[in-house]
Amino acid sequence: MQKFNANILQAYFICGTQDLPAGKTLPEIVKEALEAGITAFQFRDKGPNSTLNDNERLPMARKLHELCQQYQVPFFIDDDVALAKAVNAEGIHVGQSDEAIQQVIDEVGGQMIVGYSCSTLAEIEAGNQIAGIDYYGSGPIFATQSKADADPVIGLNGLSESVTSSEHPIVAIGGITVKDLPDIAHTGAAGAAVISMIAQSSDINETVQAMLDAPWQ
User: Fold this and answer.
1) Is 196 labeled as catalytic in the residue annotation?
2) Which domains occur in the chain, in start order?
3) Which of 26, 51, 127, 151 is most exposed, with the fewest beta carbons within 10 Å of its own?
4) Angle, CA of 82, 51 and 39, to the nearest 5°
5) CA 29 to CA 41: how far, in whole Å?
6) Buried b / exposed e across 174-201, counting CB within 10 Å, b at 16+?
7) pLDDT digits (tens, 9 = 90+) for 155-196
8) 202 given a catalytic annotation
9) What are phi and psi of 59, to 5 degrees?
10) Of the residues 119, 147, 165, 201, which is catalytic?
11) pTM of the predicted model, to two decimals?
12) Active-site residue flag, 44
């Protein structure tokens, strides 16, 4: 198992086939992001715009994990313990409405890094009582088009309150742009998790560098 280090949250890229710009494949865009210096990658392939069927998801996950291993970047699976175990992923990330967090920890705790989505102070305080969580994903900070079922926007103030209440590092997510990175870093968040900011970027190198250069705590 890869030991959790909060620095991996600084430039956290999340992507699936539903997020791709025209003319690019998922392995191509992940390789570009890895070359640019992302610190973590999460394979999140779901929703009506996903182009993978159930038989294609495992081979794609294996291919992306192999790419991440070449760059020594931890590979996360979103909300699918069986898939994460099948590819020996470094981490799993689950939301409030996904597999029960305690069940996930019981199954992979100690073998994988565990991330948990928490959007409210009540969710963070509840998470603080559960042993085995490594980090929280908190947001959406701003309105986002990348997630149809996104929770209400919490803003920078909500993020600051979450950081203050949290016993774990927080990665901010949701509607983040390059210009927002300094403000997000000043809340005490450990990093930013982004989808379209990288996937739709006209200069992935420049975008990832801005994430790495932000004044993370």
Assistant:
1) no
2) 6-213 (3.20.20.70)
3) 51
4) 60
5) 11
6) bbbebebbebbbebbbbbbbbbbbbbbb
7) 999 999 999 999 999 999 999 999 999 999 999 999 999 999
8) no
9) -60, -40
10) 147
11) 0.96
12) yes
